[in-house]
Specification:
Layout (H helix, E strand, L loop, with lengths): L7 E5 L4 E5 L24 H16 L5 E4 L4 E4 L3 E5 L13 E5 H21 L5 H17 L1
Antiparallel strand pairs: 1-2, 3-4, 4-5, 5-6
Helix pairs in contact: 1-2, 2-3
């Protein structure tokens, strides 16, 4: 799967987490915010992940006008063409510039799928989740990637 934006995978052993680091991406303002909702507002558990991905696919197909997420680490509003990630804790009196990252929704969905795939792979290697569960989810993600 080709990704438009530059990132590095980081593994946080103490939390058994995979983080996508977009700090090197210079074509987007506040690109580092892309990873904020991953794992907090967008959960990695398959039941929730599957629901989110189905909603994003409905959005991309034009079946729903928008899809909203967030409140924990970020506020995410997605439309068919683009997604906006905002900081829910932005304080206009304290901060000079409101941090907002805007990217294509199709790219954001690819990022979620990649992050989820790497998360399941990593957690199964660390013994945090069963290999069988990881295999099922990773195969499902691969099928979604073929359609995206």
């Amino acid at each position: 799967m080709m990704m438009k934006y530059k990132f590095r995978l980081k593994y946080m052993d103490e939390f058994n987490m995979v983080v996508l680091d977009f700090d090197d991406e210079k074509s987007l303002e506040f690109a580092s915010m892309i990873s904020d909702p991953l794992g907090s507002d967008i959960p990695w558990r398959f039941k929730d992940l599957k629901k989110d991905i189905e909603n994003y696919f409905d959005l991309l197909r034009g079946n729903i006008p928008e899809y909203r997420h967030g409140g924990n680490a970020s506020s995410v509003i997605s439309y068919k063409k683009y997604t906006i990630i905002e900081d829910p804790f932005y304080d206009e009196e304290e901060d000079e510039i409101e941090p907002v990252c805007k990217l294509e929704t199709v790219e954001f969905v690819k990022i979620i799928l990649l992050w989820a795939y790497e998360t399941y792979k990593y957690k199964s290697e660390k013994g945090v989740i069963a290999l069988e569960e990881a295999d099922i989810v990773m195969k499902w993600i691969e099928q979604k990637n073929v359609r995206s």
